[in-house]
Amino acid sequence: MPSNCSLNTYDTRTTILSNEEVAEAHYLLRCECAEIAQHARPGQFIHVMISQGPGMLLRRPFTIYTVEGDEITMLYQIIGEGTKQLSEMPKGASLHVLGPLGNTFNLTTNPEPAILVGGGAGIASLMLLAVALREKDIQTLGLVGAQHRARLLSVSDLESIGIAVHIATDDGSIGHHGYVTEILTDLLRETQWHRPTIYACGPHGMLAAVTKIATDFQVPTQIAMENRMGCAMGVCLGCVCPVRIDTDRFEYQRVCTEGPVFNATDIAWDIS
Ligand SMILES: Cc1cc2nc3c(=O)[nH]c(=O)nc-3n(C[C@H](O)[C@H](O)[C@H](O)COP(=O)(O)OP(=O)(O)OC[C@H]3O[C@@H](n4cnc5c(N)ncnc54)[C@H](O)[C@@H]3O)c2cc1C
Ligand code: FES
After folding, report:
1. Residue of 256, 258, 262 to mutate, ligand 2, most atoms within 8 A of C-beta
2. The pTM of the whole model exceeds 0.85
């Protein structure tokens, strides 16, 4: 039986409906979680108990990639032991899932256009947002970066909801040869947009680079942080990041509760 841990957060046992490799070392897992599906908002995540074996006592956080009826999916990269074990779990295996957790992207600004910047598996954090933007009929661009062609994620999912996608790969095997942030700079330099807003998720260095670009071009930018987590309930302080409260002062905020979404320029990148 699911339990309501806090307002609209559920700790539930579910069954894997499918768990398939969709790109090199990346899997899409689908399961039925009616309560989580019903309350999930763009940017929110679930905390997943993979097994109770050695080194696996802590749950692992993953963004909710899509919601369809009572089903949710998560798109994940194999990083270490937890995600390796997860990728080996077959259809029918049982999973403990806590969520939805965290804050959400702010959609009240009516961007023109919305620019989604995803690096690697970071694009997973932007998919529910992409759907919400398109439902509001907001022009949306997708900038998707990967190490190489075989690791490229989500392009057809974004295109299927009417989003034009620009691709960058580190080795140039498809799209722009270089970083996705270089495409972002070129687009902002070349295009006179009315009210652009950037939404980004990816490796720490990419997010710091996006923030620098956002500052140079004065474009409001929201980012989803993916710090390592312990409890995901605001208790252990294992996930904190430094957030500026004025020019020479910062405080540590919890990515699991105050985040994972932050205004990019609020993060004290020189300290984090
Ligand atoms: C809010 C949030 C949402 C996330 N959403 C997704 C998602 O949708 N898809 C996805 O693929 N991943 C996502 N992640 C990252 C994912 O949680 C980690 O990759 C996963 O927990 C790694 O578990 P593991 O047991 O495989 O690796 P571990 O064995 O725990 O770690 C292996 C190695 O990776 C490093 N590492 C582990 N986690 C992180 C991290 N978060 N940042 C930097 N280094 C790390 C460790 O230091 C270690 O060196 C998210 C993280 C957060 C906080
Ligand atoms: S993970 Fe424990 S406080 Fe955020």
Report:
1. 256
2. yes
